[in-house]
Amino acid sequence: MNVELEELYQEVILDHSRRPRNFGELPNATVVVHGDNPACGDEIHLAVRFGDDGSLDDIKFTGHGCAISQASASMMTMKLKGKSRDETMSILRTFHDLVTGDDDMPPEARKLGDLQLMEGVRKFPQRVKCAMLPWRAVEQALQQTSGEATISTEVEDQVM
Ligand code: ZN
Hints:
Blueprint: H1 3-18, E1 31-37, E2 42-50, E3 56-64, H2 67-80, H3 85-100, H4 125-142, E4 147-152, H5 155-159
Parallel strand pairs: 1-4
Antiparallel strand pairs: 1-2, 2-3
Helix pairs in contact: 1-2, 2-4, 3-4
The structure holds zinc ion.
Residues 37, 40, 42, 65-66, 68-69, 130 line the site of zinc ion.
């Protein structure tokens, strides 16, 4: 990452972590997922209201944690609000490739907008967990039709 991009990354992450968008309770949420990243102490409570066609009519979050996890959640909710289920899955996969891949940025990452800046976490496996926490929560939300669920970034590691 060049210096200019590095500065932009810092700026965007700090801005979103200080003033997270879509932060708060969501009345009439269809699904609530509680996500936990014990490695860093990040916590997220992601609430989604699905429309009749399964699209993400509204999405909000509460919680606390490091700047990366909060900024990732803030930017994610901005990106996914109003998206269809298929679009959401596609964005989710692209973001996952962006932060975990070791190749060049995938070409479809362009559609992620500011989220592309999160590419910087790839070099730091612990930070990847922070960045992925809200995305794992939304992935779980898509698998539910209603109710609450809990996810943890450590569960996958235990299985492996
Ligand atoms: Zn974190």
